[in-house]
Amino acid sequence: MNAILELRDVRAAYDEITVLHGIDLSVSAGQVVALLGPNGAGKTTALKVAAGVHPLSSGQLWLGGRDVTGVAPRDLARAGVCLIPEGRGVFPNMSVRDNLLMMTFTGASREQIEEVAFSRFPILAKRASQTAGTLSGGEQQMLALARGLATDPAVLLLDELSMGLAPLVVGRLYDEVAEIARSGVAVLVVEQFANAVLDFADHAAVLVRGRIQKQGHPDSGLRSELAALYLGSS
Ligand code: ATP
Under a CB-based contact definition with an 8 Å cutoff, are residues 226 and 215 in contact? Predict the structure, then answer.
């Protein structure tokens, strides 16, 4: 498969402290790749590197067969990279509709944005006039995803989608994420706890202290290795 997004031997640091020690990751269109690992392993940093919001110390970032190392975040966003940060990034005092319509800055029309959001997540249509802060955690995550989809991304970077949500809700969200991938989007998800995402991922990588310890198909013994390593159950 042709990779859309590639991190090649990426190192990254905060000041003098290196937190990614040369990681290789690639995501193709239609694929869900999970990057798993304990607290502080460097998962969020890897997503920030992929979105261009954190610099590489060395290595390369490739997008659609082009070396985009050092390209500004706004240009990567224009090229189709969409980061949905941990904590959802919705504006709690604005209505659901206004949260969505803010995305017209990307050039998408109001109609397009609402059509994509409300067809994918019908509950958001019902909640359109409510303030986002009154939504459940799962609905807020749907809103964050819908805002991301408004940009018609080629690459979706999701940080800890499951944070604070009940397992059933997480399962439904990942069903949608898998659907989004099937529509041709390359999806890279970061999660601390593995089980929920492994049911949906096509490929998984385990990051420990800034190094990829193992990667492969989630069926290939990776689950038991993960359990043995450190993740326990979730
Ligand atoms: P978590 O699940 O806690 O978000 P993570 O795997 O996403 O963990 P990162 O957030 O990428 O890990 O952090 C990797 C390392 O970099 C950690 O040791 C963290 O303390 C450090 N770090 C993260 N952000 C900064 C920052 N802005 N300044 C300095 N150090 C940072």
Answer: no
Index of the ligand 1 atom closest to the CA of residue 44 = 7
pTM: 0.93
List of residues 6+ apart from 111 with CB closer than 8 A: none
Look at residues 165, 180, 225, 173 and name the one whose alpha carbon lies nearest to residue 199: 173
Q: Of all atoms in ligand 1, which is nearest to the CA of residue 15?
A: 29
CB 185 within 8 A of CB 155: yes
Q: Show the ligand 1 pocket: residues with CB < 6 angstroms.
A: 14, 19, 37, 39-45, 192
**Residues in CB range of 148: below 8 A, 6 or more apart:** 82, 84, 156
pLDDT attached to residue 231? 52
Taking Cα atoms as reference points, which of 35, 37, 28 lies closest to residue 62? 28
Q: DSSP per residue over 78-114, as a string?
A: HTTEEEE-TT----TTSBHHHHHHGGGGGT--HHHHH
